[in-house]
Write a structure and sequence with these properties.
The structure holds 2 protein chains of 2 kinds. By secondary structure, chain A is of the alpha/beta class. Chain A folds into 2 domains: 216 residues, Rossmann fold (3-Layer(aba) Sandwich), CATH 3.40.50.300; 41 residues. Chain B is mainly α. In chain B, 78% of the residues lie in helices and 2% in strands. Chain B contains 10 helices and 2 strands. Chain B has a two-stranded antiparallel sheet. Classes of the chains: A alpha/beta, B mainly alpha. Chains A and B meet through helix 2 and helix 3 of A and helix 1 and helix 4 of B.
């Protein structure tokens, strides 16, 4: 078996509302995969199902070949999770949070100490180990959560909106960490509603909308399917409209034939364009 | 089992940081009850040859065990589960559900014992006939366990913080005043007496009072309290199973 994650026919309904609708997906070992979609698309619910926190209505999920529904205890050692919300224990220091996680994952005392020191260094928090969670910045908290998720050397890392609420500089630092973890062999499954994050990090992206997987492929493949060049036309009557072309020359020819009253912008297409074309909505909402 | 102590370790580490403030706040209610009922209303009342002060102190210890164990386990778990979401980290760790349940209840037991012992130390200064015997210690431990598991059960069933407050108002508050803490259950009419015997605090008060005052021990109350403990433990386990995969 070559897939790290295998999802087939996954469904989740709350009060007859489909939150995840017949999801079929495979994520390979060592892949950096991203789920892109707006809030409420079903990204977090999918991660909660994959990480044993939520029971699916139907469907099957295998992680590293282990059936999540049949053997949840075993599968829990295979992954680490960085949740979207701050799930650190606020009554403990950064070091103590890592210590608790190491204990729950049955690391022996000596190994715990070594691993905590190693990971604090890895995420650049060695000088902040004794600080209580509420006394450190949002970026430090996020890095502490990443360190905690890595403590038991998981093969698979789930990151649910890993940079939400972080400033641009801290976001880049977290991106570097994610790339480094992936380069060192971890499979990474992340969710995001930031287009630039999906484009910058992910080898493959799944676009999720109202619980349905609308498209799947590398950011480049998805853009190629749509057209690599976008032309934005801002007319007075019908607002902004978009046309997509395989290259700049065909886009230029199209622009030359347009009436002069419209304001026209030619640029490279992006995943936002792909999302809008597929769903008719913006990823970030209006 | 060792995982339960890992969970307890984190709660103890947090408690160590603020135990003086914790003791001060948890002692406030029992001391006020002692002053209002023991020294105020009850001064001069004789309870079949026992002063009202000696009568009420074991009841207040049972009450302290109930409130601190319930809140120590339940309120904390409720906040961890619904607000901070840090309880999810326990559920995603390779830890058996009974260990999670026990780990979350144990901090309530520790807090209940700490507060009860602190109150006892104060009570020893004014009460002359209170005895700490092995049955008393067993009764206190069982009371703390029972109410800690009740707290865990309530926290696992609660869908919001308001649910916990509602539970406190509808269950704990009536039990505080009707659970044989401040009056003898034997003196109330038969119908009400039966209703009061359905409360776990009544049995905790009866057993601790008898043990503290060197009276014949009501082992039936100990057994009923133990059954309540099993009921809350089983309920907590079912609630935890229902919420996890």
């Amino acid at each position: 078996m070559s897939s790290m994650i295998e999802i087939s026919g996954l469904k989740k309904e709350y009060s007859r509302k489909k939150v995840v609708d017949n999801l079929n997906l495979e994520v390979g070992r060592g892949e950096l995969f991203g789920f892109l979609g707006p809030n409420g698309a079903g990204k977090t619910t999918t991660i909660r199902i994959l990480t044993t926190l939520t029971k699916p209505s139907s469907g099957r999920v295998f992680i590293n070949g282990i059936d999540v529904a049949k053997d949840p205890s075993r599968v829990k050692s295979e992954f680490g999770v960085v949740q979207q919300h701050l799930s650190l224990n606020r009554d403990l220091t950064i070091g103590e949070n890592l210590e608790l996680h190491a204990r729950l994952h049955h690391l022996q005392s000596r190994e715990r100490k070594e691993r905590i020191a190693e990971l604090l260094d890895y995420v650049g928090l060695s000088d902040h180990s004794d600080q209580l969670i509420d006394s450190v910045s949002g970026g430090m908290k996020r890095r502490a959560m990443i360190a905690r998720a890595l403590i038991h050397r998981p093969k698979l890392l789930f990151l649910d909106e890993p940079t939400v609420g972080l400033d641009a500089q801290t976001r880049r630092r977290v991106w570097d960490l994610i790339r480094r973890m992936n380069l060192e062999g971890s499979t990474v499954f992340l969710t995001t509603h930031y287009i630039e994050e999906a484009e910058a990090l992910c080898q493959r992206v799944g676009i999720l909308h109202h619980g349905r997987l609308m498209a799947l492929g590398s950011p480049l493949e998805l853009r190629q399917r749509l057209g690599m060049v976008a032309v934005e036309m801002q007319g007075e009557a019908c607002g902004t409209t978009y046309r997509y072309f395989p290259d700049r020359s065909s886009a230029s020819r199209f622009i030359q034939d347009l009436p002069g009253s419209e304001r026209v912008v030619m640029r490279e297409s992006n995943l936002e364009d792909v999302f809008i074309e597929l769903t008719g909505e913006k990823v970030m909402g209006d | 089992m060792i995982d339960a102590f890992s969970i307890l370790w984190s709660d103890l580490t947090a408690l160590k940081r603020r135990w003086p403030r914790y003791l001060l706040t948890t002692l406030m209610s029992p001391l006020l009850y002692l002053m209002a009922f023991g020294w105020g209303l009850g001064r001069g009342i004789d309870m079949n040859g026992t002063s009202y002060l000696d009568f009420v102190i074991p009841g207040i210890i049972a009450l302290t065990a109930m409130t601190t164990s319930f809140n120590g386990a339940g309120t904390r778990l409720n906040v961890d589960r619904l607000y901070f979401k840090s309880f999810d980290e326990c559920l995603m760790a390779p830890v058996e559900l009974p260990s999670i349940l026990l780990g979350k209840a144990l901090i309530g037991v520790v807090r209940g014992i700490l507060s009860s012992v602190a109150f006892l130390l104060v009570a020893f200064l004014i009460a002359r006939h209170i005895h700490i015997t092995l049955p008393f210690v067993l009764g206190l431990l069982l009371s703390c366990l029972t109410f800690a598991f009740l707290g865990v059960l309530a926290a696992l069933l609660a869908r919001s913080h308001e649910d916990m407050a509602t539970f406190g108002s509808l269950i704990l508050m009536p039990m505080t005043f009707l659970g044989g803490t401040f009056f003898s259950v034997s003196q109330v009419p038969f119908g009400l007496k039966m209703a009061l015997y359905a409360l776990p605090l009544t049995h905790s008060s009866l057993f601790l009072r008898a043990a503290a005052l060197d009276q014949p021990l009501p082992w039936s109350s100990f057994l009923v309290l133990f059954l309540f403990f099993l009921l809350f433990l089983g309920g907590g386990m079912m609630a935890l199973r229902r919420m996890s995969v």
